[in-house]
């Protein structure tokens, strides 16, 4: 399913277990997502961009094939509240992981917005990487009022 947003289209893939992928795309790929979960995600994304602060925690994610430590990073990141940030180091200390591992996991996250990787920054306030889309990270943080 292709979801239109102010930052460009997002491509959604779902499985019987949950969301497999949500991310910015230029060209759709894979099977078109459909069904109640896809509709729920589409509604939540639309509400997010209206500034309504939807809670994505109730949306199931399909972590098939991901390592337990990556799942732990994603679950901890999902709990970072709208409009706030945490540092890579603080998240790493919470999980017993190096900050670099946190950054690596978030860089590879297939769950855009649902796992709000944009809310994780360097301890000194630098934004850090965002899979080559640092401008997008800045836009999202400003949109949420975190900067």
Automatic annotation (TrEMBL):
Nuclease keyword on record: no
One Gene Ontology BP term is: DNA repair
Superkingdom to which the source organism belongs: Bacteria
| Keyword check for Methyltransferase | yes
Question: Which SUPFAM superfamilies does the entry link to?
Answer: Methylated DNA-protein cysteine methyltransferase, C-terminal domain (SSF46767)
EC numbers for this chain: 2.1.1.63
Q: Which Pfam families match?
A: DNA_binding_1
Q: What is this protein called?
A: Methylated-DNA--protein-cysteine methyltransferase, inducible
List the taxonomic lineage.
Answer: Bacteria, Thermotogati, Deinococcota, Deinococci, Thermales
């Amino acid at each position: 399913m292709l979801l239109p947003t102010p930052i460009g289209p997002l491509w959604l893939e779902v499985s019987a277990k949950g969301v497999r992928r949500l991310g910015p795309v230029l060209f759709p790929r894979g099977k078109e997502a459909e069904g109640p979960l896809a509709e729920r995600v589409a509604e939540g994304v639309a509400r997010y961009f209206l500034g309504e602060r939807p809670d994505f925690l109730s949306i199931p994610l399909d972590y098939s094939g991901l390592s337990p430590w990556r799942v732990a990073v994603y679950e901890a990141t999902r709990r970072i509240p709208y409009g706030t940030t945490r540092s890579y180091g603080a998240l790493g200390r919470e999980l017993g992981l190096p900050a670099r591992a946190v950054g690596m996991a978030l860089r590879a996250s297939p769950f855009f917005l649902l796992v709000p990787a944009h809310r994780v920054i360097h301890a000194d306030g630098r934004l850090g990487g965002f899979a080559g889309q640092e401008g997008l990270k800045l836009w999202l943080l400003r949109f949420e009022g975190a900067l």
